[in-house]
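tool_call: predict_structure(chain=1)
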Amino acid sequence: MKKTFHSIQVASKRSGVSTNLIRAWETRYHAVEPKRTKAQHRLYSDDDIKRLILLSEVTRAGHRIGNVAAIQTKELQKLAKSLKNEVADIEERIILFPRTSGGIRPEVRAKRLRHLCIEAVKAFDGPALEALFKEASTLFGGRGLLQLVMAPLAQETGELWRKGTITASHEHFASSVISTYLSALSKSFAGDARAPLLIVATPNGQLHELGALLAAASAANLGWRVIYLGGSLPAAEIAGAAIQSRARAVALSLVYPEDDPNLDSELLSLRDLMPKDIELIIGGRAMTSYSTTVDKVTKLQAKNLNDFDSILDGLHKPQIK
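tool_result:
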């Protein structure tokens, strides 16, 4: 039977793997070997697409692409099947409600998982919290871990601290464990040397880094190259790093404090120091407190991780062969 071949756009749509990641997996790890037309356009067979689906499943469950890219397709199928069984076991342990024929919505599973995370925070149990993050990655994949578990968990711990339900030491403990996990997670995502570069930081006076770390991990997961500068950096330092590295964009997280009298001048200075072709993205819980200045310096404003991802997708429009 004659094989049917498809463009990278079709392969991406059918496999659920972004075109950028497909190219990264191919060029860096030889995970698939597509045919080429005379014009050097990639062509993927149905078998290639099935392999991409399997690779997506096992990497979303926490396996690094560098460790699984060379595995034969039959072995990948066995690994994917074992991971599905593992997911079922995890679901049985964390779901509060009995199973129904329609299944349990991811939001319900994530809410229960976050409840267990809060209990681990209250007990200062770092290994338990990390284990729950790994289970979340298995259940929801990298995107789901960030959007359904980590981002809401960071917000919930902050709210519990402000209400007095947990102490400041609990909140700092949670932030430390999440930060460490996010740093490792960002490094696990495959990056393409040709992908656009994003600088992530918090401006001078902004002391809470979790939002920035979430943004860095999310961007890396989408295939961007990311330089994470950390917290409370002066505008000149951020602009200098962006210019020197030829960044496509700079992302700032504004979380705490919400009443810094110097932040407006820092944002205005950063925009003036950077070339106009370097985009500025601003997000975070405290963004609305500085809305007048934020509106002056950028239209790229992210209320949540979904907004942030959409902005990055809009900025990343490579010409795919």
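agent: The CA atoms of residues 107 and 148 lie 7 Å apart. Proceeding to next step.
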